[in-house]
């Protein structure tokens, strides 16, 4: 039985990685607003969702890297910074 081929006609071109956290966050917020508006065609909505997932992973990675670098001096010892919630 032959395998069904998957069409890649709806695949969006690869977009460049954001320059920094702020530009990624700004783009992500714009995508969320467009998706929530309900005015995007289905194909565009899927592409926006996929790009949003890439941007979200980028932002999370940047935040984790910064958190790993933040240290608090406590009684002469450097300790990893932990947020208080």
From TrEMBL:
Catalytic reaction equation(s): Exonucleolytic cleavage in either 5'- to 3'- or 3'- to 5'-direction to yield nucleoside 5'-phosphates
Annotated spans, Disordered: 1-20
Classification via Pfam families: Exonuc_VII_S (PF02609)
Compositionally biased residues, Polar residues: 1-10
Localisation per UniProt entry: Cytoplasm
Example GO BP: DNA catabolic process
CC terms in the record's Gene Ontology section: cytosol; exodeoxyribonuclease VII complex
Annotated keywords: Cytoplasm, Exonuclease, Hydrolase, Nuclease
Entries under Gene3D superfamilies matching the protein: Exonuclease VII, small subunit (1.10.287.1040)
Record-listed E.C. numbers: 3.1.11.6
One GO MF term attached to the UniProt entry: exodeoxyribonuclease VII activity
Major location category of this protein: cytoplasm
InterPro entries membership: Exonuc_VII_S, Exonuc_VII_ssu_sf
Family, similarity comment: Belongs to the XseB family.
Cited function: Bidirectionally degrades single-stranded DNA into large acid-insoluble oligonucleotides, which are then degraded further into small acid-soluble oligonucleotides.
Binding partners and assembly: Heterooligomer composed of large and small subunits.
The protein's name in its UniProt record: Exodeoxyribonuclease 7 small subunit
Organism: Comamonas piscis
Lineage: Bacteria, Pseudomonadati, Pseudomonadota, Betaproteobacteria, Burkholderiales
Gene expressing this chain: xseB
